[in-house]
Structure formats: C-alpha cells, structure tokens
Amino acid sequence: NAGVTQTPKFQVLKTGQSMTLQCAQDMNHNSMYWYRQDPGMGLRLIYYSASEGTTDKGEVPNGYNVSRLNKREFSLRLESAAPSQTSVYFCATNRGPNEKLFFGSGTQLSVL
Amino acid sequence: RKEVEQDPGPFNVPEGATVAFNCTYSNSASQSFFWYRQDCRKEPKLLMSVYSSGNEDGRFTAQLNRASQYISLLIRDSKLSDSATYLCVVMPMDTGRRALTFGSGTRLQVQP
C-alpha cells in the first residue's frame, strides 16, 4: 500500500525544455493537489482537482498544466521550463477539500 | 495580508522545555485547521488536527481561538526529535479555491 507515489524524485532541465511530473494514489481519495515549495515561502498551490474530471487553478498556476487522468492519477506538466520554476514539488491527496492531506515524497526540480 | 501567517523562528529551546507557536489566519469563516510537521527536504506529515474545543495528543496540545483568529501549538517536554518546521494549515473560505492553504512554517531547534 504505497499511499501517494510521485515521480521523478529529482530532475534537471534546461530552460525551454518540457517535462511531466506524475502522481498516483491508491487511497481512493477524491481530491488531488500540486504544491510547490520555495525557501521561506511555504507551500503554494499550483493546481488542484477536487474530483475526477475536474481541475482548477490554484495560487500560482502560470507556466503549468495538469491532467486528472483518472481517479488515481494527477499529472503536472511544464511546457517550457523557466528558472523561476526551480522548486520542490509535492503532490497531495485527501478525501475532500476540508480533510487532512497526504503527501508524496516530492520532486526536486532545477531549471538551468 | 497573507491568508495564513506564522513567525518563521527559529525557536531555539533546550531539551525538556515547553514551547508554543501561534498562527493567525485572515478570514473569520475559515474552517478545518491542522498542524503539519516537515523535516528538512521531506514531505509534510500531519501532526494533528485542531478542533474547536482544543485537543491534545501526548506532549502536543492544539488550540483554536476563533475570536482572535489564531491557532496555537504547545509542545511540552521538548525532545531533540521535535526539531523540525511546523506548518499551520487552514481551509480559507474567501479565495474561491477549495483547497487547504499553508503558512510558511515555524522552525524549531531543540538543543541538548
């Protein structure tokens, strides 16, 4: 029972490259989230999916796209990476918006 | 004004000390309050939910003060292993986003 699985754990990109971060959960949760964490900034919400088939922008959505592929999977795509997107990315899930969150182990992304 | 504000610290305390953190939130209608713990470069993990009547879990006590719009975390008999960053998490009701919002965290360093 893995909980929330996030891949890759580390990635280095050049400016302008694209990549997709994958997140899968086996907790049968309805809601999934992508956060980014920068030093001194706490976690900021990029996009979220309250339920299968829906996605919504968070606080910092620019430069990102998401896909809620099915109930289990929620991917985050950077179409043209920029140095400002260097960060640690966390996927999280919960049963519903007011419920406690469970996190993946994070992706450390560097854009050169 | 930020939705959720925390003193970044660090709080440097000796083993065995009692330490308390506060976290203020901006919207009086906010619901669902949590404290998370985050170790360096790791994913946040739930420490405890915060209930209206206050709640305790071993050495940890959480309180909610709706009138003054803050939540608190009290740690008694601090252990070296309590050294971490403590994140305050709130469900805001004024952003239009159905997702939990994180404070920037308070760093605790327990010293021998």
Taken as a percent bin, the fraction of beta residues of chain B is over 45%
Helix tally of chain B? 0
Radius of gyration of chain A: 13 Å
Shape of chain A: globular
- Uncertain ranges of chain A: none
| Low-confidence regions of chain B | none
Work out the helix count of chain A: 0
Task: Assign an overall shape of chain B.
Answer: globular
Tell me the series of helices and strands of chain A, N- to C-terminal: EEEEEEEEEEE
What is the β-strand count of chain B? 11
Sheet with the most strands, sense and barrel status of chain A: 7 strands, mixed
Quaternary state of this entry equals heterodimer
**Kindly, what is the distance between the CA atoms of the first and last residues of chain B, rounded to a whole number of angstroms?**
37 Å
Secondary structure category of chain A: mainly beta
Measured distance between first and last alpha carbons of chain A: 36 Å
Helical content of chain B (DSSP H or I, runs of 4+):
under 10%
Round the mean pLDDT of chain A to the nearest integer and report it: 94
Q: How many strands, which pairing sense, and closed or not: the largest β-sheet of chain B?
A: 6 strands, mixed
Overall mean confidence score, pLDDT of chain B: 92
Report on the structure:
The complex is a heterodimer of chains A (112) and B (112). Chain A has 112 residues and is mostly beta strands. Chain A is 0% helix and 52% strand. In chain A, strands 2, 4, 5, 6, 9, 10 and 11 form a seven-stranded mixed beta sheet that branches. Chain A has a four-stranded antiparallel beta sheet with strand order 1-3-8-7, with no helix packed on it. The mean pLDDT of chain A is 94. Chain B has 112 residues and is mostly beta strands. Chain B is 0% helix and 53% strand. In chain B, strand 6 (55-57) and strand 7 form a beta hairpin. The chains are: A mainly beta (112), B mainly beta (112).
